[in-house]
């Protein structure tokens, strides 16, 4: 049966499906099909689907395709009678519920549904501290899936808070109880990585488990990944190994301000994904920048002036030693009422060149 669908290359399928899910236009009544390296993802509204994927940095086409009807797959919504708000990281499902009874009901439906989920975690705190981690409540565990849950690449059993997340052809082992990771930034990470050329020198100042640095290394760059969280750095090293780029990734545990002297003037590209306080590290970024350097600066600001404070912070630190040109400024996502998570792509050029 021909149904409205979004066609996209397989490697961009995850980000496309996530964007369509966030726009609530996925058609759960039909199967996804694969033909000639492209996925055909069924949607309920072609126009809304086109809007949902318009900002993705990949080749998508809204079309129709002969897709089979999905047979007998029960979703959490089928069990509950409403669509719960959930987020998937690997085989962990994350919910955010204040009511313990509602959380337990949703978690039970997730485990009982036919979609793969090994554990359900409820957010028990906001992101906190220098290491940007949060507390979690393990609400439900699929005992059968847990008994079989072994990380094949490392040969280790996985805890309920640990998973292997796959994104744009790479995989990242991580423990949500110990590190910060957001699957919602997959499209943004891919946008940045797609700009990287072979032989670039890229330094991620707040690298986490390596979701910027490791794909960058896969494109032929030399990557330095720095993070204050020693556990995240351990995972970054492991993820470099499992993605075959261990020789191209140098992972360093510590404050990036403490390692700046070792990489003074080294970087062709810098990633500053610490949006609440990146402005405190702009002077360090200027120290790290080479003769010409692209800076990906993430910020959270009020919607009335989302880009101005970041531009001013960069210019204040870089000028007059560098000329500063803003190449891209865009909204990554809404963060809170009237607050936006934004990114500035800024090129620094040594003024005396």
From TrEMBL:
Residue ranges of domain SAM-dependent methyltransferase TRM5/TYW2-type in the record: 86-350
Key words, A-Z: Cytoplasm, Methyltransferase, S-adenosyl-L-methionine, Transferase, tRNA processing
GO biological process, one term: tRNA N1-guanine methylation
Span of the signal peptide: none
Cellular component GO terms, alphabetical: cytoplasm
InterPro entries: MeTrfase_TRM5/TYW2 (IPR030382), SAM-dependent_MTases_sf (IPR029063), TRM5-TYW2-like_MTfase (IPR056743), Trm5a/b_N (IPR040601)
One Pfam family hit: Trm5_N
Sequence intervals crossing the membrane: none
An annotated Gene Ontology molecular function: tRNA methyltransferase activity
Entry protein name: SAM-dependent methyltransferase
